[in-house]
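Exercise 7b. C-alpha coordinates:
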Protein backbone atom coordinates (compact mmCIF):
# COMPACT_ATOMS: atom_id res chain seq x y z
CA UNK A 1 0.00 0.00 0.00
CA UNK A 2 1.33 3.42 -0.93
CA UNK A 3 0.34 6.48 1.09
CA UNK A 4 1.34 9.97 0.04
CA UNK A 5 1.38 13.17 2.06
CA UNK A 6 1.09 16.70 0.76
CA UNK A 7 1.00 20.21 2.18
CA UNK A 8 -0.41 23.15 0.28
CA UNK A 9 1.42 26.21 1.62
CA UNK A 10 4.08 27.63 -0.70
CA UNK A 11 2.50 25.77 -3.63
CA UNK A 12 0.50 27.20 -6.48
CA UNK A 13 -2.69 25.41 -7.49
CA UNK A 14 -0.87 24.24 -10.62
CA UNK A 15 1.94 22.66 -8.60
CA UNK A 16 -0.40 21.18 -5.99
CA UNK A 17 -2.77 19.48 -8.43
CA UNK A 18 0.13 18.52 -10.71
CA UNK A 19 1.87 16.63 -7.90
CA UNK A 20 -1.33 14.74 -7.09
CA UNK A 21 -2.02 13.91 -10.72
CA UNK A 22 1.57 12.81 -11.40
CA UNK A 23 1.48 10.47 -8.37
CA UNK A 24 -1.85 9.06 -9.60
CA UNK A 25 -3.47 9.63 -6.21
CA UNK A 26 -7.00 8.20 -6.02
CA UNK A 27 -8.23 9.89 -2.84
CA UNK A 28 -7.18 13.02 -1.01
CA UNK A 29 -7.72 12.59 2.72
CA UNK A 30 -7.94 15.98 4.38
CA UNK A 31 -6.64 15.66 7.93
CA UNK A 32 -6.87 19.32 8.87
CA UNK A 33 -8.95 20.22 11.89
CA UNK A 34 -10.26 23.28 10.04
CA UNK A 35 -10.85 22.47 6.39
CA UNK A 36 -12.56 25.75 5.52
CA UNK A 37 -9.46 27.88 6.14
CA UNK A 38 -8.74 30.70 3.71
CA UNK A 39 -4.97 30.09 3.94
CA UNK A 40 -5.05 28.97 0.30
CA UNK A 41 -8.33 29.50 -1.51
CA UNK A 42 -8.07 26.38 -3.65
CA UNK A 43 -7.86 24.18 -0.53
CA UNK A 44 -11.07 25.35 1.10
CA UNK A 45 -13.25 22.23 1.55
CA UNK A 46 -15.95 22.73 -1.08
CA UNK A 47 -13.62 24.28 -3.65
CA UNK A 48 -11.01 21.59 -3.08
CA UNK A 49 -13.54 18.79 -3.49
CA UNK A 50 -14.68 20.33 -6.80
CA UNK A 51 -11.17 20.97 -8.14
CA UNK A 52 -9.93 17.49 -7.21
CA UNK A 53 -12.79 15.87 -9.09
CA UNK A 54 -12.69 18.16 -12.13
CA UNK A 55 -8.93 18.49 -12.57
CA UNK A 56 -7.61 15.12 -11.40
CA UNK A 57 -10.59 12.75 -10.98
CA UNK A 58 -9.60 12.37 -7.30
CA UNK A 59 -12.07 11.68 -4.50
CA UNK A 60 -12.11 13.82 -1.34
CA UNK A 61 -12.49 12.67 2.25
CA UNK A 62 -12.20 14.64 5.49
CA UNK A 63 -11.03 12.72 8.57
CA UNK A 64 -10.95 14.81 11.75
CA UNK A 65 -9.96 11.69 13.69
CA UNK A 66 -6.53 12.11 12.08
CA UNK A 67 -6.27 15.76 13.14
CA UNK A 68 -4.92 17.10 16.42
CA UNK A 69 -7.25 18.26 19.17
CA UNK A 70 -7.86 22.03 19.05
CA UNK A 71 -6.21 22.58 22.44
CA UNK A 72 -3.13 20.66 21.32
CA UNK A 73 -2.87 22.70 18.14
CA UNK A 74 -3.37 25.96 20.04
CA UNK A 75 -0.64 25.09 22.55
CA UNK A 76 1.82 24.38 19.74
CA UNK A 77 0.93 27.51 17.76
CA UNK A 78 1.34 29.66 20.87
CA UNK A 79 4.69 27.93 21.46
CA UNK A 80 3.51 26.66 24.85
CA UNK A 81 4.87 23.23 23.88
CA UNK A 82 7.88 22.18 21.83
CA UNK A 83 7.61 20.12 18.65
CA UNK A 84 8.87 17.07 20.58
CA UNK A 85 6.11 17.48 23.18
CA UNK A 86 3.50 18.09 20.49
CA UNK A 87 4.66 14.97 18.64
CA UNK A 88 4.42 12.88 21.81
CA UNK A 89 0.94 14.20 22.64
CA UNK A 90 -0.26 13.71 19.08
CA UNK A 91 0.94 10.11 18.89
CA UNK A 92 -0.76 9.34 22.21
CA UNK A 93 -3.96 10.83 20.79
CA UNK A 94 -3.73 8.60 17.70
CA UNK A 95 -3.20 5.61 19.98
CA UNK A 96 -6.18 6.63 22.13
CA UNK A 97 -8.33 6.95 18.99
CA UNK A 98 -7.13 3.53 17.72
CA UNK A 99 -6.76 4.88 14.20
CA UNK A 100 -5.09 1.67 13.07
CA UNK A 101 -8.46 -0.04 13.69
CA UNK A 102 -10.90 2.72 12.76
CA UNK A 103 -9.45 4.08 9.53
CA UNK A 104 -10.28 1.83 6.56
CA UNK A 105 -7.14 0.65 4.80
CA UNK A 106 -8.97 0.90 1.47
CA UNK A 107 -9.41 4.64 2.05
CA UNK A 108 -5.67 5.19 2.38
CA UNK A 109 -4.52 2.89 -0.41
CA UNK A 110 -2.96 5.21 -2.99
CA UNK A 111 -4.29 8.20 -1.08
CA UNK A 112 -2.63 11.46 -0.08
CA UNK A 113 -2.95 12.91 3.41
CA UNK A 114 -3.40 16.67 3.26
CA UNK A 115 -2.34 19.30 5.75
CA UNK A 116 -1.17 22.86 5.41
CA UNK A 117 2.55 22.72 6.22
CA UNK A 118 4.81 22.85 3.18
CA UNK A 119 7.24 20.19 4.43
CA UNK A 120 6.35 17.03 6.36
CA UNK A 121 9.06 17.16 9.02
CA UNK A 122 7.05 19.19 11.53
CA UNK A 123 3.57 18.22 10.41
CA UNK A 124 1.09 15.77 11.84
CA UNK A 125 0.55 14.15 8.42
CA UNK A 126 4.00 12.60 8.75
CA UNK A 127 3.17 11.42 12.26
CA UNK A 128 -0.06 9.78 11.06
CA UNK A 129 1.59 7.78 8.26
CA UNK A 130 4.53 6.77 10.43
CA UNK A 131 2.15 5.67 13.19
CA UNK A 132 0.12 3.59 10.74
CA UNK A 133 3.26 2.07 9.22
CA UNK A 134 4.12 0.67 12.66
CA UNK A 135 0.70 -1.03 12.83
CA UNK A 136 0.00 -2.03 9.23
CA UNK A 137 2.15 -4.18 6.97
CA UNK A 138 3.57 -3.15 3.61
CA UNK A 139 3.16 0.62 3.70
CA UNK A 140 5.27 2.78 1.45
CA UNK A 141 5.31 6.49 2.30
CA UNK A 142 6.03 9.25 -0.18
CA UNK A 143 5.92 12.93 0.68
CA UNK A 144 4.91 15.08 -2.29
CA UNK A 145 6.86 18.35 -2.08
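Sequence design result:
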Amino acid sequence: MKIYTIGFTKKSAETFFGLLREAQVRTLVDIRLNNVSQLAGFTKRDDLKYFLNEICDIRYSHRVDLAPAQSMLDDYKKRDVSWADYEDRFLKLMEHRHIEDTVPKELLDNAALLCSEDKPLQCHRRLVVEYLSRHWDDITIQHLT
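Instructor comment: Helices lie at 13-23, 45-56, 70-77, 83-97, 99-102, 105-108, 124-135. Strands lie at 2-7, 27-30, 59-62, 111-115, 140-144.
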